[in-house]
Design goal:
This protein is α/β, with parallel strands linked by helices and 735 residues long. It contains 25 helices and 22 strands. Helix 4 packs antiparallel against helix 6 and helix 22 packs across helix 24. The N and C termini lie far apart (65 Å). Its EC number is 2.7.3.9.
C-alpha cells in the first residue's frame, strides 16, 4: 500500500493481492461518491471495462445494502439474497459466494470491499471476514488522505461539497436551519498497527481506568444537582465500562496487532454491525450506549477530551443517540436533529419532542455525507433533509421559518389573555407533559395546568426500572413547578406501543389490544402500588389528581381505588401527611365505557377522553400504521356523537370531562370539541397558541347549536369536517 504507484495502479494492486491471498476469484472495491452512488473503483476478476462505470445506489443490491447498513454480509448463495441486483456490465452472476465489508472511517461509510467465489456452499470463515475488515480500515485511511482523488469520471468528484437531499421520516414538527454538528466527532485513528503489544495493552488499560474514573466523577457531580433523566444513563455507562466481554475483545484486537485506538474502532464497528441487525429496541438502545462509551474511550486515547461544539445553530447529525446525550447539548443551541435511525418511540425522539426540536429520522447515509459545519436544513414536517442546500432551497426554508416565527410571536402575545370565547365561555387549556424537560413549558405556553402527565415516559427513558425514590422525586418536582396549577398524573400506561425495555413483555399478536396499562398494573400490583405511594408522598399536604389509563370495565376502577385506599392507610400509619385533596379520574379510551356512562360518572371525580386510543378502537385502525391511521376522520359524525355522549353524561353528573388526545391540539378539532360542550382540553404545549387564537374568535353557543342540529339529524353520516371548516370561514375563525 505504500508503494509509490499512481492511485489507480495502487488500487488495482490491492484488489489483486487480496484476491490472491484469500484465494478468491473476485475482489472489488466500490467507493461511495458524494451523490450517494457507489462506484466500482477497482476489480480483480470482474470485467475490467466496468471500472468507474458500474454503479449502485446506497441501499441498492448487496453492495448498497452493506454501505447503507455499515454491516458486513457473508453469503454462500448470493444470487438468492433478497437484495441481490445484477449488474450486467460486471458479469458477476456466476459468483455464488460473497463476502462484503464496509470501508468505514470513524463511523462513516466510504465504500465497500467485496470478495466473491464461484463455488456455491463455501462460506468465508470468521478470520477472513475480520482480515478483510482490517484491510478495509487501511483503505479507508487511504481514501481519507485523498489517495483516490481524480480517479472518478469527470464531473463526479469525491469531494463533499455538493447539495444532497434525503427523504426521511417526520418525527417532530418544525424547521431547523443551521450547520452540521456530527454528534460523534470523527476521531481520526491514523496509526493502525502497534509495534509492541504489551505497551499497547497498558495504554488501553490506562485509558479504560481514566474513562471509568470520569464516569464516577460525573455521577458524583450529578448526585445532588441533577436527578433527572440523565442519571440512569450514566449508571448504565458505569456498568458497561466494567463489562468484561468488551474489555476482552479490545485486548484481543490489540494482541492481534492493532493499536489501542484501532482496536476500539474495530470493536465498535463490529458492535455497530450487530446493532443494525437487531430489532429489539431495548438491546439496540443499550448497544447504542456502548457505542457512545467507545467514542469516549477513543477520544481518551487520542487526547481529544472534552472537544465540545459551541455553535449556536447546531443541527445535530447522528446515527442514533441516547436521550441523555441530547440533554448534554444546550437547549437553545440545537436547531434540529437528524438521525439515520430513530423512530417515534426512540427515547431521544421523545425528549426532542419535549424540547420542541425538529427531528427527521431514518435519514439513510446522512452521517457519511455530512461534514461538521456543512449548512443543513431539516424539515420536521415532511422528514426531508437538505444537506448543503443550494441558495434557493435555503431561502425557501428561511422564509418558512420566518413565517413560523412571526406566528409564534403572535401566539406569545395571546399568552396572558384569558382563554375565553367571544361569547364569554371560559375554556381550560391544559398541557400534556411527561418529563422534567417539559416543565418550563408551563410558563412559556400559558397553560392552566397539566391535563395529562404521562408517567410512563420516565420509565421509558430510563434503562432500568426507576426506583420509588426516583419516581417520588420527579412527581415532587412536577408539583413544585406547577405551583397552584393543577396536575393530572396518569398512572403507568405501558404495553401496546410503549414497551419497557427491562420489563418482560411477551410477544403479542395485537399489542394494542393486549396486556397493557391497567390490565398489567392490576395483575402486577407491586408496580402500581410503588407508583401510587410515590405520588401520595410527593403530594403530601397538597392537591393530587390521579387518573387511570385504558379503563375497560368498571371493576378496574374499584380495584384501583382499593389499592389507593391501602396506600393511604399505609402512609398514615407511618406518619406521612396525606394529600390535601385527592381526585380520582379515568381515561375514556375504550368504547365499552360508552355504554355505561352513568355508572362510570358516579364512580369518578373526573374523566379525560384519550381520543388517540378511543379513535383507534372506535374505527379499528392502528394509530401507528400510516397506511390506515388517516383513513377515517376524527371529525366524523359518529365519532363526534360518541364524544358528545360523554360530555352530556358528565354534565348530568356534574363530573368534569376533558380530552387529552392529539385532537385537542388541532384548532379545527378543538373548535368542534368546544362546540360539543368540552370546557377543558389538554394538548402538546406548542398547540396552545393556535388553539387559543381560534377560540378567541369563536361564538361557542352558536357553534353548539349548529353542531347539535347536525348530530341530531339521524340521516347525517360521514364527516362533519366540511361543515366545521365552513363555520370557521364564515366567522373568520383561524384554524
Ligand atoms: C390517548 O390515547 O389519546 C392518550 C392521550 O394517551 P396516549 O396517547 O398516551 O396513549
Ligand atoms: Mg392512550
Amino acid at each position: 500500500m505504500i508503494e509509490p504507484l499512481e492511485a489507480q495502479a495502487r488500487l488495482d494492486q490491492i484488489v489483486m493481492l487480496i484476491a490472491k491471498h484469500m484465494e478468491t476469484e473476485v475482489c472489488s472495491l466500490y467507493v461511495l461518491r458524494a451523490d450517494g452512488v457507489l462506484e466500482l473503483y477497482a476489480t480483480e476478476g470482474l470485467n475490467p471495462g466496468s471500472v468507474h462505470l458500474a454503479q449502485l445506489r446506497l441501499g441498492e443490491g448487496l453492495v448498497g445494502t452493506i454501505a447503507a447498513t455499515a454491516r458486513p454480509l457473508n453469503l454462500s448463495d448470493a444470487q438468492n439474497h433478497p437484495a441481490f441486483t445484477y449488474l450486467p456490465e460486471t458479469g458477476e452472476e456466476i459468483y455464488a459466494t460473497f463476502l462484503g465489508v464496509p470501508v468505514l472511517r470513524a463511523g462513516r461509510t466510504l465504500g465497500v470491499l467485496v470478495v466473491q467465489n464461484k463455488a456455491a456452499g463455501r462460506v468465508y470463515p470468521e478470520e477472513e471476514s475480520e482480515a478483510l475488515e482490517t484491510v478495509a480500515m487501511v483503505i479507508a485511511e487511504m481514501i481519507a488522505a485523498g489517495g483516490l482523488e481524480g480517479l472518478s469520471r469527470p464531473g463526479v468528484t469525491l469531494d463533499l461539497t455538493r447539495p444532497v437531499s434525503f427523504a426521511g421520516l417526520a418525527l417532530c414538527d418544525g424547521i431547523g436551519i443551521g450547520r452540521v454538528v456530527l454528534h460523534e466527532p470523527r476521531v481520526i485513528v491514523s496509526s493502525l498497527f502497534n509495534e509492541d503489544v504489551d505497551s499497547e495493552v497498558s495504554r488501553l488499560t490506562e485509558a479504560l481506568a481514566i474513562l471509568r474514573e470520569s464516569i464516577e466523577g460525573m455521577l458524583a457531580r450529578r448526585e445532588v444537582a441533577d436527578e433527572g433523566e440523565h442519571r440512569a444513563v450514566l449508571e448504565t455507562y458505569r456498568k458497561f465500562a466494567q463489562d468484561r466481554g468488551w474489555v476482552r475483545r479490545l485486548e484481543e484486537a490489540v494482541r492481534n496487532g492493532l493499536t489501542a485506538e484501532a482496536a476500539v474502532e474495530k470493536v465498535q464497528s463490529d458492535m455497530r454491525a450487530r446493532m443494525m441487525h437487531l430489532t429489539d429496541p431495548y438491546i439496540r438502545e443499550r448497544l447504542h450506549d456502548f457505542d457512545d462509551l467507545a467514542n469516549r474511550l477513543l477520544r481518551q486515547l487520542i487526547g481529544q477530551v472534552g472537544a465540545g461544539n459551541g455553535a449556536s445553530d447546531a443541527v445535530v447529525v447522528a446515527r442514533n443517540m441516547g436521550a441523555a446525550e441530547l440533554l448534554d447539548y444546550h437547549r437553545g443551541q440545537i436547531k434540529g436533529l437528524v438521525l439515520e435511525e430513530g423512530a417515534t418511540t426512540s427515547h431521544v425522539v421523545i425528549v426532542a419532542r419535549a424540547l420542541g426540536i425538529p427531528v427527521a429520522g431514518q435519514v439513510k447515509g446522512v452521517v457519511s455525507m455530512a461534514e461538521n459545519g456543512d449548512p443543513i436544513v431539516v424539515d420536521g414536517e415532511s422528514g426531508d433533509v437538505h444537506l448543503r442546500p443550494p441558495p434557493e432551497v435555503h431561502d425557501l426554508f428561511a422564509d418558512k421559518l420566518g413565517f413560523r416565527a412571526e406566528r409564534q410571536q403572535r401566539y406569545r402575545s395571546l399568552r396572558d389573555l384569558p382563554a375565553k370565547t367571544r361569547d364569554g365561555v371560559a375554556i381550560g387549556l391544559q398541557m400534556n407533559a411527561g418529563l422534567l424537560v417539559d416543565l418550563p413549558q408551563l410558563a412559556e405556553s400559558g397553560a392552566e395546568g397539566i391535563g395529562l402527565f404521562r408517567t410512563e415516559l420516565q420509565f421509558m427513558v430510563a434503562s432500568t426500572m426507576p426506583r420509588a425514590s426516583d419516581q417520588e422525586r420527579l412527581y415532587r418536582a412536577v408539583i413544585d413547578a406547577a405551583g397552584t396549577r393543577p396536575v393530572t398524573f396518569r398512572t403507568l400506561d405501558v404495553g401496546g406501543d410503549k414497551l419497557l425495555p427491562y420489563l418482560a413483555h411477551g410477544l403479542e399478536q395485537n399489542p394494542a389490544l393486549g396486556y397493557r396499562a391497567m390490565r398489567l398494573a392490576l395483575d402486577r400490583p407491586g408496580l402500581l402500588r410503588t407508583q401510587l405511594r410515590a405520588l401520595l408522598k410527593a403530594a403530601g399536604g397538597r392537591n393530587l389528581k390521579i387518573m387511570f389509563p385504558m379503563i375497560t370495565d368498571l371493576s378496574e376502577i374499584v380495584a384501583a381505588r382499593t389499592l389507593i385506599a391501602r396506600e393511604i392507610e399505609h402512609l398514615e400509619r407511618f406518619g406521612y401527611a396525606p394529600p390535601n385533596e385527592l381526585k380520582l379520574g379515568a381515561m375514556l379510551e375504550v368504547p365499552s365505557l360508552l355504554y355505561q356512562l352513568d355508572p362510570l360518572m358516579r364512580m369518578l371525580d373526573f374523566v379525560s377522553i384519550g381520543s388517540n386510543d378511543l379513535f383507534q378502537f372506535f374505527f379499528a385502525v392502528d394509530r401507528g400504521n400510516a397506511n390506515v391511521a388517516t383513513r377515517y376522520d376524527d371529525l366524523s359524525v359518529p365519532f363526534l356523537r360518541a364524544l358528545r355522549d360523554v360530555v352530556l353524561a358528565g354534565e348530568r353528573h356534574g363530573v368534569p370531562v376533558s380530552l387529552c388526545g392529539e385532537m385537542a391540539g388541532r384548532p379545527l378539532s378543538a373548535m368542534a370539541l368546544i362546540g360539543l360542550g368540552f370546557r377543558s382540553i389538554s394538548m402538546a404545549p406548542p398547540s396552545i397558541g393556535p388553539v387559543k387564537a381560534m377560540l378567541l374568535e369563536l361564538d361557542a353557543q352558536k357553534l353548539r347549536g349548529e353542531l347539535a342540529a347536525l348530530l341530531d339529524d339521524p340521516s347525517e353520516v360521514g364527516s362533519a369536517r366540511s361543515f366545521l371548516k365552513d363555520f370557521a370561514e364564515r366567522h373568520r375563525i383561524p384554524y
